[in-house]
C-alpha cells in the first residue's frame, strides 16, 4: 500500500494485527511510507482523466452502430418515441411540482411559474403524441400482417379443397390450425420470425401443415401413368406389300371405327405405338388427361 500513512496507528491498533501485518507496517514506516507518493497520485489522476475520456471515445462508434439498422428490420419505420420517454415524462412532472411548490412558498414569481409550467406541459404533450403515433403505426402493421396471413391461409385451404379435402369440416380446420401453430413454433425456435412485408414464419408453417394434411388424408394429386417402355427389339424387315397404297383402297373393315373420346389413344396403345401415344396425350387438356387416366 504505497503512500499509506501508518503513523496514526496506536499500540492498541498494532496489537490487533497479526505478526505478518505488524511486520509489514513496520517496514512501511521505515521506508518512509508516511511521505505522500506524488508521482503515483499524479499518475492516478491522469489515469482517471483518461478513464473519464474513454466512454466519450467509445460512444462515437456505438452511435454509428445504432444508426445502422439491422438487416432484418431494414424496412421497418423507426419509432418516434424516445427510449426514455416514461422517465422524461416523470422528470417533467416533477419539475412542474417543484415549480408549484416554490411558487406557493413565495420563492418563484407567478409569471415564471406559468412559463415553466407551459414549457413542461408542451414537452409532455409532444412525447405523448409520439407515443400515440407509434402505437397507431404498430396496430396498422399488425393488422396488415394479420390480413396477409389470413389471405395465405385461405389460399392454402383452397388448394387442399381442390385436392378433395372437405375444408369446411370443423375437425379438419382444427387439425390444420394445430399443425400450423406447431410448425410456426418450430420455426420461431430456429429464429425464423414474421416481419412487415416478409411472413417467413407463416409461409413455412402453412406450407408444412398443408403437406402433412395431404399425407394424412391421402390427397396426393393423381398423375397420368406413363406408358411402359417397350422392350428393345432387333431391326426387322417390313413387308411393304401389305401396306395399302392409299386409303381409298383400304377395305371399310380395316378402318378403325372411333366412337369414344379416347378410342384413338386406346388404338395407339393397343398397336404399341407409344411414341404417337405420348404425343397425342400431350395435346390433350389437363382435364382430358385426368379423364383418360381415370378410365
From TrEMBL:
Q: Which domain of life is it from?
A: Bacteria
* Segments of skewed composition (Acidic residues): 28-69
Residue span of region Disordered: 1-83, 222-245
Biased composition, class Low complexity, residue ranges: 70-80
By what name is this protein known?
Answer: Scaffolding protein
